[in-house]
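Encode chain A's predicted structure.
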Amino acid sequence: MKDVTETFNTVYDATFRELMRYCLLKAPLEDAHDLLQNTYAQFYRTLVKKGTSAIRDPKAYLFTTLKHEIASYYRSGAKRKTVPLEVISDMADDLSVEDLSLDHAAISDVLAVLKHETPSTQRMFILYYGYGMKLGDIAEETGTTAIGVKSKLARVRKKLRTTLQEENTL
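Encoded structure for chain A:
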């Protein structure tokens, strides 16, 4: 049993951020944690039942299980929606300053400027700067090109520099 727990903890530590990012792209924040918890619970049950050698690629197993969880979630009648900026703003309080490389006041300023952007641009910005996703991954998940994502992020950065510099000179 100790081997199962060690394997589970190792895989959990190695995959959690990536699975959470994927889950947040596909499901509302309030349900994402439950979907991910169900995924890891299924993984643990399989490890206990079949042993640690039964799953050759734990990451692939977890992604497949998570995709099935999300599909079940939407089949049950849940409507797909994007995470509103207010929720992301609340999430910023939960993220460590080290992860975002900004202090809390700066996060509030950035989110205030970001509120004026399209939901798609807001999402791209949060995924890139808040969760460290790569441009290609963001493009794939949002149905755009990597160059399109890069351009939108560049425009937002320019707007942030301009807006925040104006506020600082007042």
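Residues 2-26 form the longest helix (25 residues).
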